[in-house]
Amino acid sequence: MSSRKNKSDRSSHQTNQNYESERILTMQCLYCFTPIITSVTWSNVFYPSSFQHFCSNCLEQLSMIEKPICPRCGRPSNNLCIDCHRWEERPDYANVLKMNRSIFSYSNFVQELITQWKYQGDYELIKGFAPFIRKAFSANFGQLAKSLTIIPIPLTHMRAYERAFNQAQAIAQIIANAYKIPIIDALKRNEEITEKQSKKSRYERLETKNPFFLSQKLHTNVLIVDDIYTTGMTIHHAAKQLKKAGSPSIYSFTLAR
Ligand SMILES: [Zn+2]
Ligand SMILES: [Zn+2]
After folding, report:
1. Among 98, 103, 163, 215, which is least packed, fewest CB within 10 Å?
2. Threshold 0.85, pTM exceeds
3. Nearest ligand to the C-alpha of residue 29?
4. Are residues 246 and 184 in the same domain?
5. Which ligand sits closest to the CA of 236?
6. CA of 38 to the centre of ligand 1 (A)
7. Which residues form the domain of 146?
8. pLDDT digits (tens, 9 = 90+) for 123-166
9. What's the gap in Å between 40 CA and the centre of ligand 2?
């Protein structure tokens, strides 16, 4: 995004000012660096994570998924969506994934934000997403939290080299910390099988061999965590291996759908 300034401009991230006896905190939007002015109150002074990290313009473009949603994958829909129907028609994938829930509707803006985070290793951006992650997790999985083990989708070695860090791991860590849920990196990638998704058609992608295997069996319910749910192929591949190994119920959580 052209309005995004150089990272080095972030040096004075937040400053306190006295303003007519009211405490004002000036922060910058984590994405476009527009200043955000917040009054410091008793309710937010002890919870700095509750401060707004994105400006109102960026927040407006982050469109939250609202009901009605597909009961399976959580995208806006009145019934089971067409993608989920397709998964249900495949005997090898039907019922492997109990439910996916995502926070934001997939859009160019969300894609840009996530790509920025992905390839520039923008550690700060997780602070902006954290309140959304905690809220969406609590609303959709709060009741199940005690029964879950979190498994983040791993990066390929190639991508781990290209990127600064694994976003799925960062999202998983926020949930794990808030709910005291264990994260187990049981999902491993078979590096022989690559998913060069962008170069393949949707049909070809669905036919790709499963790139995942498990380093250990889990007999608990599992929450798979990833950044984006697009065709659902990555999550279905992961869910299938977990189901085969004996996990009773498999759920997934992503930032965007
Ligand atoms: Zn902004
Ligand atoms: Zn669906």
Report:
1. 215
2. no
3. 1
4. yes
5. 2
6. 14
7. 82-256
8. 778 888 999 999 999 999 999 999 999 999 998 777 666 655 68
9. 41
